[in-house]
């Protein structure tokens, strides 16, 4: 006798995370300091000093439950984005929000739409509720919005869009995205995942929050894990209409975001200087990586985020050879991109380590 489980749960493949530094150190018998991790799109500058200070102030209250409604953090987010607290859902990372939206809006057997090569959590969240999915073929590694629109059926409940997308780094321009959001039927939710929005240049920026007043079906997901440097604390937020926000809050755990994360996020939001430094470092170093790929004769997908997808031949073998040199990058065969690897933009010296290891592995020169 064994326990019963739904077929749609048994069909879920476990999420493949970037290898933790400690794990590789144990495997190679190396010091953790000798390892470079460029596999999970984390902020190489760490976190804002204001986030750190806010967190230490919150230490004394850790015997108490967190504020279930995140009053102070929601107030700060509301002010920053020009929404009301009733339009905000806090999540244990934005991953939590993707799941909350799916659980709140999709029943087993109903339908969702997302793109080929899109962030894998759209698939995982949909599978967990037994939804059916249409995976729309990518165009130039990015979302084909016309085809995604055409894939919507009367059973469709959510269309997921990542902008920029992970792992491809592709960006849909604001005008095209706005036309898409307006064209999606009002009873189908558009989950717009903006995990890397802080990395967009002034020319690439667009204001999706301005669309919320016209579209009750729009759910914008943001995170403190990437540019804000708080990945280990797990905090994200969704902006949506009050009706959708109410539904998402009904299915969340009462204390889904912890006190330290709420405090740190509040501190981080107040530190524009740190955000600016993170943005500028990323722009400079991403440009350096992309030019190096061109010199090495490696095809890459131009990135709008803090990582680059680059074609190396056998992505899994190159990832393994890089690991043996103490450099952790991400294979993306699971995303249907077996010839590529994804590398996060690190500190200058980390990127130098990465480039020299890559040229060693590929037997090519970096200059
Ligand atoms: C990293 C990432 C997220 C979420 O990260 P959290 O740490 O759960 O906030 C969401 N979407 C995309 C596309 C990502 O790359």
Describe the structure.
The chain has 367 residues and is of the alpha/beta class. It is built from 13 helices and 13 strands. The strands form three sheets. The chain has a seven-stranded mixed β-sheet, sandwiched between helices. Strands 9-10-13-12 form a four-stranded antiparallel β-sheet, with helices on one face. Helix 4 runs parallel beside helix 10 (259-269) and helix 5 (94-105) runs parallel beside helix 6. The radius of gyration is 21 Å and the shape is globular. The chain starts with 6 loop residues before the first helix and ends in a 5-residue tail after the last helix. Bound molecules: pyridoxal-5'-phosphate. The site of pyridoxal-5'-phosphate has 13 residues, from helix 5.
Summed up:
The protein is an alpha/beta fold. It has helices spanning 7-10, 21-28, 49-58, 71-81, 94-105, 121-128, 145-150, 174-183, 242-251, 259-269, 272-295, 315-324, 348-362, and strands at residues 36-37, 88-91, 111-115, 132-136, 156-162, 189-193, 218-223, 236-240, 300-301, 307-311, 327-328, 330-331, 340-344.
Largest sheet: 7 strands, mixed
**Class from secondary-structure proportions:** alpha/beta
Report Rg: 21 Å
Secondary-structure element order, as H and E?
Answer: HHEHHEHEHEHEHEEEHHHEEHEEEH
Which parts are unreliable, with pLDDT below 50 for 5 consecutive residues or more?
Answer: none
What separation lies between the terminal Cα atoms?
62 Å
Mean pLDDT: 96
Protein traits:
367 residues, alpha/beta, 7-stranded mixed β-sheet, 4-stranded antiparallel β-sheet, 15% strand, globular, binds pyridoxal-5'-phosphate
């Amino acid at each position: 006798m064994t326990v019963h489980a739904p077929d749609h749960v048994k069909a879920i493949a476990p999420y493949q995370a970037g290898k933790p530094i400690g794990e590789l150190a144990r495997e190679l018998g190396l010091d953790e300091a000798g390892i470079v991790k460029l596999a999970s799109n984390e902020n190489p500058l760490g976190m804002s000093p204001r986030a750190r200070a806010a967190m230490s102030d919150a230490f004394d209250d850790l015997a108490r439950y967190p504020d279930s409604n995140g009053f102070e953090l929601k107030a700060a987010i509301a002010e920053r984005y020009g929404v009301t607290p009733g339009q905000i859902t806090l999540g244990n990372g934005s991953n939590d929000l993707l799941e909350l939206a799916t659980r709140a809006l999709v029943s087993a057997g109903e339908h969702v739409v997302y793109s080929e090569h899109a962030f894998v959590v759209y698939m995982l969240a949909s599978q967990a509720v037994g939804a059916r999915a249409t995976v729309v073929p990518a165009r130039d590694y990015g979302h084909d919005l016309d085809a995604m629109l055409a894939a919507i059926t009367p059973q469709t409940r959510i269309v997921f869009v990542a902008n920029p997308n992970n792992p491809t780094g592709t960006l849909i321009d604001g005008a095209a995205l706005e036309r898409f959001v307006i064209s999606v039927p009002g009873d189908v939710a558009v989950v717009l995942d903006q995990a890397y929005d802080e990395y967009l240049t002034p020319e690439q920026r667009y204001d999706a929050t301005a669309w919320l007043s016209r579209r009750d079906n729009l759910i914008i997901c943001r995170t403190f894990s990437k540019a804000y440097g708080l990945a280990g604390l797990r905090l994200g937020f969704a902006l949506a209409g009050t009706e959708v926000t109410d539904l998402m809050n009904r299915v969340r755990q009462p204390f889904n975001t912890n006190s330290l994360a709420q405090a740190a996020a509040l501190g981080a939001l107040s530190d524009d200087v740190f955000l600016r430094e993170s943005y500028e470092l990323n722009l400079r170093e991403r440009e350096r990586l992309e030019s190096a790929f061109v010199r090495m004769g490696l095809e890459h997908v131009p990135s709008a985020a803090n990582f680059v997808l680059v074609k190396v031949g056998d992505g899994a073998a190159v990832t393994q050879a890089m690991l043996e040199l103490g450099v952790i990058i991400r294979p993306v065969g699971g995303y249907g991109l077996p010839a590529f690897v994804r590398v996060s933009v690190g500190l200058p010296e980390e990127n130098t380590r990465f480039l020299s290891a890559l040229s060693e592995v590929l037997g090519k020169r970096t200059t």
